[in-house]
């Protein structure tokens, strides 16, 4: 039963990964920047909650902090999202020129007095990692994007030596979902630099409800079952829905 539930949940993970509010570059160029990421560039993903007393001031404080972050060596872009279901949950994604730049910036950020007020608002870090686009068709786009699309973020572990099988089965499944469900706009799949068996997906949906419908209707489809063979069902996954931080 638990395994079946996990397989069902993974459907939404499939359709997951990326969109966010840019700071130093025009919002309309955000997706172009991610889609055009170079081989050496890495994405830094942070999923975190803020303290209750920071809810009213966090948006403005976050903007100022991200502006400051844009002055760091190797910074390319940053985007921020706010959870649909949890008012204290946020998602940040930063693009860096290299892993070295990202790691150096992380050390500098943690001790930078300019961001001390921002760091004090953070309650819990739920996920933090550096990732790169998968080697084969990391970005799959199916339908026209819109400003009010919902972002689905998900993590999942795959079994050892199963990446090639996943890549072979991923595209036919995603193409099917994109054709049959117009609300499914785009999916971007990345791989953890530190933990290769960890994949992070970000998808764009017209609405959250459509993703739920797909979960119910596709769980027994042959394309999905073939894709799910790669998953390590013993590992816990994260799945959340977000909108742009305005």
Automatic annotation (TrEMBL):
Which SUPFAM superfamilies does the entry link to?
Dimeric alpha+beta barrel
Domain ABM positions? 43-104
Q: Where are the transmembrane segments?
A: none
* UniProt-listed InterPro entries: ABM_dom, Dimeric_a/b-barrel
Q: Mind telling me what this protein is named?
A: ABM domain-containing protein
